[in-house]
Specification:
Lysozyme-like, SH3 type barrels, 2 domains, five-stranded antiparallel sheet, 24 strands
């Protein structure tokens, strides 16, 4: 179990390696999640602890794929993880937030039969999440987060929110849209927020089917195989991953049916004459996110 003493993290799998890339005192209001876009936990820690002529970066924590955590600075000291950023009327989120970097290669390119990182490392399909970013762009590969990494991230978020009274958990993509894409569509941000704040009513965003019937498919493609009989008008859906044209959803209620649907046939409120399914609590959203992280991702065809 993790705890915080004198603004340092204490617990199994935690260590401290001081970075020289720090600023002044910090009274945090937000938690910002990132991916490292790096090769490993060790390489990212080394980079964030090095002063560079071209510009320095750092974060408070680096979270490994195996659950190890390396703290680089106390939580009451500014680190340089946000860059040019803004949120809710504030600019320069370095001065207002705690930053967690998660060991993850980020966006992947399809090269032949493989998915490759920018540093030319290939990843097996069971470590690849295929989808479009919520802010737009093509369907592509993203390095999937490990199950233990997601569990640890949720534990950290809960601890930091409760200790420092944080107002929100954000992605780098939220505070620097168009410039940054991390932590990306492979990370279950909605589930993490729900668990960190105990928000039953926003465990996952919801939409409703507004067509007479709607196919739910195995991939974000109109030619992909259907995974179940067509969904009826008024069917309530939990959004697991939002894309520009397609979204990965779970059917609400007593079912674990998941698949991809076309956004054109979804609406924000139940159509007239239909009723909402019973709400799933935050714990269900987290369980769903963990299940997705732990299984092989279906590749778009």
């Amino acid at each position: 179990m993790l705890s915080i003493k004198n603004h340092r993290l204490v617990g199994d799998g935690c260590s401290f390696q001081a970075t020289p890339n720090i600023g002044g005192p910090l009274s945090p209001r937000y938690l910002v999640m990132h991916y490292t876009a790096g090769r490993s936990l060790e390489s990212s820690v080394a980079s964030l602890c090095t002063k560079k002529p071209s510009g320095n970066a750092s974060a408070h924590l680096v979270l490994g794929r195996d659950g190890r955590i390396v703290q680089l600075a106390p939580f009451n000291v500014v680190t340089w993880h946000a860059g040019i950023s803004a949120w809710d009327g504030l600019t320069g989120l370095n001065s207002h937030s705690i930053g967690i970097e998660m060991d993850n290669a980020g966006a992947l390119d399809r090269v032949g039969a493989q998915y490759m990182s920018w540093f030319k490392q290939a990843y097996p399909e069971d470590q690849v999440h295929v989808g479009a970013h919520a802010q737009g762009g093509p369907v592509r590969g993203w390095h999937a987060y490990s199950g233990v990494q997601i569990e640890r991230a949720i534990e950290l978020a809960e601890l930091l929110v409760s200790t420092y009274g944080l107002q929100e958990v954000l992605g780098h993509e939220d505070i620097a849209p168009g410039r940054k894409s991390d932590p990306g569509p492979a990370f279950p941000m909605a589930a993490l927020r729900s668990q960190a704040f105990g928000r039953e009513d926003d465990a996952l965003p919801r939409r409703w089917v507004n067509a007479s019937t709607l196919n739910i498919r195995s991939a974000p493609d109109g030619l992909a195989a259907v995974v179940a009989p067509p969904l009826a008008r008024g069917t309530e859906l939990l959004l697991l991953e939002v894309g520009s044209r397609w979204s990965r959803v779970e059917v609400a209620g007593p079912t674990d049916l998941e698949g991809w649907v076309n956004n054109s046939f979804l609406v924000d409120q139940p159509p007239a004459g239909t009723r909402a399914a019973p709400k799933k609590l935050a714990a269900k959203a987290v369980k769903s996110a963990m299940k997705v992280a732990g299984k092989k991702t279906t590749r778009a065809r």
